[in-house]
Each structure stands twice: as C-alpha cells, then as structure tokens.
Amino acid sequence: MKGHEIRDTRYEIRDMPSVARRILISDPLAKEGIEKLKENDDFKVTEVAGLGEEELVKTIPSYDALIVRSGTRVTEKVINAAARLKVIGRAGTGVDNVDVEAATKKGIIVMNTPEGNTISAAEHTISMLLALSRNIPQAYISLKGGEWNRKKFMGTEVCGKTLGIVGLGRIGSEVAKRAQGLKMKVIAYDPFTSQEKAEEMGIALFDLEKLLPQVDYLTVHTPLTSQTKGMIGKKEIALMKKGARIINCARGGIVQEDALYEALKTGRLAGAALDVFEKGKPFGSPLLELDSVVLTPHLGASTREAQKKVAVDIAGQIIDALKGGEIRNAVNILTTPPGVQKKIIPWLNLAEKIGNLEAQLLEGHPRKAEVVYSGRLTDTEVGPLTIALIKGLLDSVYEGVNYVNASLLAKERGLKVMETKTSNEEGFANLISVRLTTHKQEKRIDGTVFEKVPHIVRIDDYSLDFVPQGHLLICVNVDKPGAVGKIATTLGKYEVNIGGLQMGRSTPSGKNVSVYTLDSSPSQKAMKELEKIEEVLEAKLIHL
Ligand code: NAD
Ligand code: MLT
Question: What pTM did the predictor assign?
C-alpha cells in the first residue's frame, strides 16, 4: 500500500461538560482497573453490577462512559436513552453484548481489549484438552460419589496425537505453541493467515476438508461470523476419524450442537469439551446428559491475571478517550481528523461494503487487492477509503478489526493492497473498482455513490445496479427462461420475501447474475434447495 497509514489516530471528544465526567461500571471489574480510574480527580466512578435493561435505561442518561464485561446487555434501547455517553468500553474481546450499530449511529465509540485474555483462553483450551483425554471431571464426580473406578476412566495420551486448529489468530497460535510443548503434531485451517507465519510456527496449513480426516483433536478459535457460524456440522464431523474429540472455547454456535450431540451419542466422536454454547447457558441441552462431554461456564478468560489485564487496559483506554487523547481498540470509528470524515462518509461506506462483499463472495485466503479510484475521486485523499476497504475485507475474519488496525492486520496476514488512480471512469462520475485475488479465486467488483447512496455496478463481467445492504442472495444462473421464476418460487416456499431483483448478463444465452434483496435470511434448508435448481450454478447468501 502506498504509505497510507492513518496519520492522526486521535479523536476529539467534544462538548465535554466542565463538571466531573461520570463513568458507570455495570459488571464486576478487577480492582486494579477501578483504582486506575479513581486516580483521576475529574472522574466520578460508580459501580453497579446486575442492572437489567430498564434499570440501565433509567441510569445511563447521566453518564459519559460505560464499562462492561459480558454480563451487561447494552441494547439499542439503552443506547438511545444515553444523553451524554461518549464511550462504551468492553473489558474483554467479544462485543456481542453491545449493539455496536446503534452506538455507531449515535456517535458513541465502542472499544474492547482484545489482547488481555489471550493467554488465559489458550491455557483453558489446553486444560480442556487434557481433562477430555483423562476424564478428569467425570472421575472427580465419581470419586466424590464414593466410587473407586480406575477401569471406567481409562484415558488417552495426547503425545504424538494430531491437533487441528481452526483459526490461527491470537489464541489459536498460543494453543499451538502449548500443544507442541505437549509433543502433539499441530496442523491448522485458517484461510486468512499467511503460509509464512504458519511455517515459522512449524504448522502445516490445510483446507478444512483435508484437515478434518487427519485430526485426533479439533479446536476452534475463530470469531463467530456469518462464515464461521455452524462451520463444524454433520458433514464436517463425518469427515473426522471415528473417536476424535472436539473443543470449543471460542464462541457458541461455531460447532453445531445438534450435530455434535448425535456424533457423541452414536460414538462417532469420543468426546467434546465446551466453554461456550449456542444459547449462552446450556440449561436444557441434551449435551448435559452425556458423560463424554466436559463443560465449563464460559471460564476461558476467568483468571486473576486476565481480569486484571483487561480491567487495567480498559481503564487506560477510557481515560485517554475521555481526556481527548488517543483512541485505542475502537471497533466502530475511523480515526481521521474531524471534518475530513464527514465529506467522505458515503465513499467510506461504499469501500467498506465492497470489501465485505468480496470477502463473503470469495473462498480462500485473500492475497492481493488491486484498488482503482477513478473520476472525481482522483482529486480526493483516498487513503482512508483504502483502509475502509481493508476493514470490510477483514471484518468477517477477525475479532475487533477497526480502522486503526486494519492495515497492520492486512500486512501481518500477507494481504498486498495496491492503490491506483485513473481518469478513465468507465462512464461513472466516480468509481471504486476492486479486484481481489485469493489463493483460490479472483473477482472484480465496482461501485459508485449516487445521491450519497452506495451502489454496486459491476461484478466481474456483469453490469448490475444494487444497493449493498441487508440480506442479499447472489446467484449465477444458466441464462434460460424460467430460472429466476424457480428461484423466486423456492424463496416464496420458505416465506422469504423478495424486496428487489437486479440482473446482469455478459452474453445472451450464456450465464447471468441475479441479485435478490431479501426481507429476511433464508434457512440452510432453503439455501440447499436453491442450490439444487438445475439452472443455478452458484448461490451465495450475503449479509451486509
Ligand atoms: P483473532 O482475531 O486473533 O483470531 C481469529 C482467527 O480466526 C484469525 O486468525 C482469522 O484468520 C481466523 N478466521 C476467521 N474466519 C475464519 C474462517 N471462516 N475459517 C477459519 N479461520 C477463520 O481472535 P482471538 O483473540 O484469537 O479470539 C478467538 C475467539 O476466542 C473469538 O471468538 C473470541 O471471542 C473467543 N474468546 C473466548 C474466550 C473465552 O472466554 N472462552 C476468551 C477470549 C476470546
Ligand atoms: C471475551 O470475549 O473476552 C471472552 O469470551 C471472555 C469474556 O466474555 O469475558
């Protein structure tokens, strides 16, 4: 990239009242973080844990900052009730309990602390691996119940066994190092990590289908995104060795619980260890009835050290933010100087949407993004647009990617970004054209802004015009009469309403691309039926 890092990472929080700034901590936070906040005489800190939505709605109007862990649900209603809230700090990684979109709309910064609990989460995963192999929780319960049974709890060694890691990010990498220390063979699937990084760690990368048959243990360490939700299901488990074991200390729902239950019940899998669950708390789940499952109540980050680190980190970040200093680990703001940002907002939206669309349409590890800005954009400072594009590309891949860390993450993951400007605008007043190459595929997407609204005007050789937002079904069809009718009928059968339809074709009677804007997301069953339509060559569901 042509030296386009964001120069000014400061974000001015204006209109601060001269009275003390009020900080509400609504979940238990380690004392070191609270003390750090209280060292500032101009802050008034209140700790009230366990507030429900209604109580929070009543409490929030007088606060400038809110600090939460995973317990407090910061809903749209809470955010809309906030009168002077400038920043929401999450002591931890996942911001799934904060309505980030509502906060963004209201101009409230949301920040997290993505690094503080990495080691604890990795250590918990290793504890689960060993507990699972040696039946430690089961044996403990049995012994406490007065039974002395050495035969029943015969275990397996992990030494020499193969561990498959899905998601070789911060936690996945730390798990890998520890597993190698236990003399396990570690292999991984992460289409967004670079071959060089994996090689340096002594880890071979495989596609998921090639990795699964090799592993004795599988552990997932991805964020929960539209791509990773349910990524380990019946089909994937069927590819695994009989007697393999699965660990999920990342997010509930990455491993499909009904498929996991079936595989454990039939003995296809020998065991599973779960720290996180599809429905938050697993009460009522049949998994609780199985002896082969080891469960913990979301304890990955529950250590003194991790809680101290995330509390101190969030306190420091909130202090800086409220004092108009540097904004760190913000998940929802572009840190360009105020003023510049407003003018380019529609273009930032377009660039981010193109990136996100490319990431969801293409399979494989993104290697190269060639961005061409044309028309009037040649006179604009396009650096922030390229950063927004990269953020869009990486958003569904990394937890906590933001405008500050997007370029760095791209570099670390081996994504080359090339930016050029040209006066040849191909008939549009302004155009952003992006050709993304992954290790498997290549795709070009063009977009423009019309009356402040982003439009996608081209996918590969197909000219189209649609607004990139909401649920979109993008199909490549054989260009034959009746194909679109069959798709619409199938969507209708599953009660999915079509809000708009756009088509593009390259040559008559060849192939065409149809883009359906949907009022709701079709089920997996509906998608499978769509894929079976004779004329449909490809059907992708996109969420923007
Ligand atoms: P990270 O962003 O550093 O790493 C995520 C990795 O997943 C990246 O390397 C990315 O390339 C990869 N990835 C993304 N999409 C993928 C896909 N479709 N297929 C394969 N790989 C994909 O995140 P992290 O800090 O390592 O956190 C990992 C997970 O652990 C997150 O879900 C986080 O919320 C969770 N977490 C849980 C606990 C706990 O208490 N159990 C504690 C901390 C974090
Ligand atoms: C996180 O996202 O940081 C972890 O899941 C731990 C937590 O929720 O506190």
Answer: 0.74
